[in-house]
Specification:
Blueprint: H1 12-23, H2 29-32, H3 34-45, E1 50-56, H4 62-73, E2 77-84, H5 88-91, E3 98-102, E4 115-121, H6 129-142, E5 143-156, H7 162-175, E6 180-181, H8 182-191, E7 194-200, E8 217-224, H9 230-252, H10 261-269, E9 273-277, E10 283-291, E11 296-304, H11 315-329, E12 333-338, H12 341-349, E13 353-355, H13 360-373, H14 377-385, E14 391-395
Parallel strand pairs: 1-2, 1-4, 2-3, 4-5, 5-6, 11-12
Antiparallel strand pairs: 5-8, 7-8, 9-10, 10-11, 12-14, 13-14
Helix pairs in contact: 8-9, 9-10
Amino acid sequence: MTIEKTRSITTCFYHGIYGFMQDHKLFGAWQRTSNQHIKAIRTHFGAKENASILYCGTATTRNPQNVYEAMMSLGINPLVTTLDLSRKPLMGLDRKTYQPMQANAVSLSFADRSFDYVTTDFLLSKMALESIILTIQEWGRVLNKDGLITTTTGVRQSDINLTNRAYDEITNRIYGIHFLPIELLRQIFYSAGLEVRFEKAKFDVKPFMYRYPDEFLVFIEAKPIKSENVDMVEKAKELIRDGLLIYKATLSDPHLRPLGFEEILIDLINNKFIVSRQENGELLGFIRIQEMSGNWYEIGSLYINPLYRNTPHHYGSSLLTQAVSVVKQKGGQAIVFSNNQSIINMLEKFGATKQKIIPMGLLLPFIITRLAHSKNVGDFISSTINKRDRSIYTLFAQ
């Protein structure tokens, strides 16, 4: 997996300001949601006397101290390991009580099953998607089989809501903060072997720096998944694996519009891709069905592994047949943009009608859908212009 740089600010100046604000009750998520953390700890550990703890992403000296004090108040003697990319928040910790470590959360050096409890706050919101996946996988690896994870983070409730997307884009660009859709975050936890529970983050007084809408903030409680639900782990791993394969394919095939990794995973969750693979998991091909409005669907992103394009199995025809069948079962109308003659030949067999321009009733839904799924204005313009040199076909049009 290619790792984007973790979006964490690690300068001493930042941590100094952060710590000052936290001490004056202007900042600090863990202390503000401590009742939720403590309730989860008390419920999970009960009368446990000792616990090994990883505070992953310290940010300030005060954060792990809050955890230590909370554990002591519950009668649990904690051994707290603190981890951060920066040395600054680690320097003020008493080494008799804490074990500070300057390291990256995406690649932990601890042995498997090293900790009873892993916690942090808003670390995930400061990371790129690839880093989030690796960090949660590492949490699952180092957590004891009867352990607990708690954290607070931001989520996006809908991948289509343009208001949410605009807010997410602004916070991402200005503050380096990125919120994932809640269902995608759930699947990432599953892929790490963790069952997860979300609830609304409860701040007594919301910190000055966290003036996000309430629906964006959640408290997360995760623990190793039960054996009877192990199939959920395999399905989630398959989701991540398929997402990576499709992502790499869209980058390597000049006929496909490059898609973002997050966009692909969301579409896989929402069953917008039909994927074909070998028994050994090797990708044979895929096709994408993108719902628009007015009962229209765009069928596109047809990809066949170059190793299998000249075989007699006709994987492309099979995928296109499945996509057309899905649209037909929904009672919808389909539009296809293509300059590939073999695809055009298949479309004509389905009775597709060639159009000179995008049907007027579809023009506005097309623009809205393209805007909602574009990473930025440049991506929207590029993907729209690229359609101009392709023939337009419609299926089942009224």
